[in-house]
Amino acid sequence: MEMEIKVPPIGESVKEATVARILQQENASVKKDDEIAELETDKANQMIYSPANGKIHWKVKEQDTVQVGQVIAALEEGAQENPPKEVQERPKETVEVEKAEEKPLEKEPLPKSKEGQTRKKMSKLRKVVAARLLQVSQETAMLTTFNEVDMSKVISVREKLKKEFLEKHQVKLGFVFFFAKAVCEAAVSTEKGLMVPVLKAVQNYSFADIEKTLRGFAEKARSGQISVQDLEGGTFTITNGGSFGSLLSTPILNPPQSGILGMHTIQERPVAIEGKVEIRPMMYIALSYDHRIVDGKEAIGFLKSVKEQLENPSDFFKA
Predict the structure, then answer these.
(1) Which of 28, 217, 236, 265 could form an SS bridge with 24, CB 3.0 to 4.6 Å?
(2) Is 291 a catalytic site residue?
(3) Domains of the chain, with CATH numbers?
(4) SS3 106
(5) How confident is the model at residue 47 (pLDDT cuts 50, 70, 90)?
């Protein structure tokens, strides 16, 4: 008896996907819940699992475009007499970008590769990322405002609490928490790209809640278990370029959101404090926003408020 394996519903408004990886060879014997293929969409990668024990027969190949509900394989149930399945061992990967209209990018035929060059087809996700970046420049009036933060007190609070915090909650206390308390979203980097899972109602989270939730998101993203629901409903993004050593950058908006806060590396610099020059651990912060709906006065005031809260963390943070 054969069982059809179809493309499952992947997420709201997602109608098609690309067969990114086929993880089981034709005629391979598989067990129920074995990973058999990975689909790539413009929202998230989706792993496909075997619904039962049997032998698999593919009806598609890698890089084929498939529709939700389309039959991609048939499973010959109970056929387990063959040797164990051969699995293409590759690291699990996942990446998320919000859905954006995919616009054509390579209208002219690619020239033939020259000696020493290698040309590869642009992936569906990469095309969507490119389309989104272009969309931002064409459809928003993006403006960025900058400030800098004296991180002395934040560092002091973190150093004071981190040992007890780790022992109590089994999770490290990071810097993102101090920013996440003022906004609603945080970022997770994967091998394939940056994902932005949503911390909803973050103002109600404790230190431990935020750090544990962030760690959970990171583990899910890097193991391919992140869901579309984990990435929906955001209104504001935090991006931490400082974790890669960036001193200053202009963050790009993530439509339809209207703001993004950029954190950067902490660097000791001489600053004037009450008429004296002191060496302080300073961080540049940047706020990019859609000037069509956010006025400069409000954006500057918001960034100034973030700065003031970070420089006086005891006023509003509780462990």
Answers:
(1) 28
(2) yes
(3) 2-77 (2.40.50.100), 126-315 (3.30.559.10)
(4) coil
(5) confident
